[in-house]
Amino acid sequence: MFERAKPLWAAVAAALVVPLLPLPAAAAAELRVISWNVCGEAGGQRGDAGYCPYRNEPDKKVEQLAGLVSRHQANVLLLQEVCGAAPGSHLDLLKAALGPGWSFARADGARPDGRVDCRGSLEGDLGLGIAVKAEITGTTVTQTLPPDPTGQSGQTLPTLCVRTDTWAGTRICTTHVLADPADPRRAQQVRNVKAAASAGGLDVVLGGDFNLFPGSAELKPLSSAYEECDSLGNSRDEVTHHAWTSGKHVYRKRDHIFATRTGTSRRFTWCDADQSLMDRTANEPDSGPPNGYSDHAPLIGYLPGT
């Protein structure tokens, strides 16, 4: 008997997941950064276009975040589509999971209807979150999405930045860029993100869901000014997003971590996209359980400290 050939998408999906290898130990003052769009806001059932796994189970996502922190000895978390500012929210549960020594900052990001409340059974408000294993000494929230020229959308997509006592010369930021490629505001939003992150002339670590692919002209203000994690080596530009579109698997890189050191280059010492946590199943009503915890993979980068 001949074995039936696997469909191409199955081979691609299998190739995305690589064995977990031993990681180098953290050096003193090293920045170990995890950026992840956890798709944590409620909405979407299996088979719907807006489906994302475990949206109404924040404890499952927080468990994975805590596991990533432990595995990588991470000290910076940059989170998108996360709920906070209330007991039982993602960030509240994450505080308990990470324990003492961590500081948190957050910023609301409103949906197009102007609401920020996390829907379904979730607690808290929707937006961005930063967690650092240090004391936050300053927090800046900049609304970097230009207003809708039609006046019909109340959506806001801020850039959230913090400064800390441990990395006093570094501004640590996260953001979320518009997903619609036809929206004319995306190019200006990226320029606004660049201005917000680089304010003050400090070193910069900037991670998030940019909804822009490597080589995109709209991404140039960042990619030409900063070094990008995962842009060099044999595993460059790894996939960070899976979509089920018109009955097909679509894999793209939408998430990025950028960094710079004032007056010189700042070289990432290690980078990876943990695709084992990205749901790669077909999204049909009868597809069964997901095999990941978000439609995005977390992106991890190690940097020398200042």
TrEMBL record:
Pfam families, sorted: Exo_endo_phos
Keyword Nuclease: yes
Keywords for this protein: Endonuclease, Exonuclease, Hydrolase, Nuclease, Signal
Record-level Gene Ontology MF annotations: endonuclease activity; exonuclease activity
UniProt cross-references to SUPFAM superfamilies, sorted A to Z: DNase I-like
Endonuclease/exonuclease/phosphatase domain boundaries: 34-296
Renumbered residue ranges of the record's region Disordered: 279-306
Designated name of the protein: Endonuclease/exonuclease/phosphatase family protein
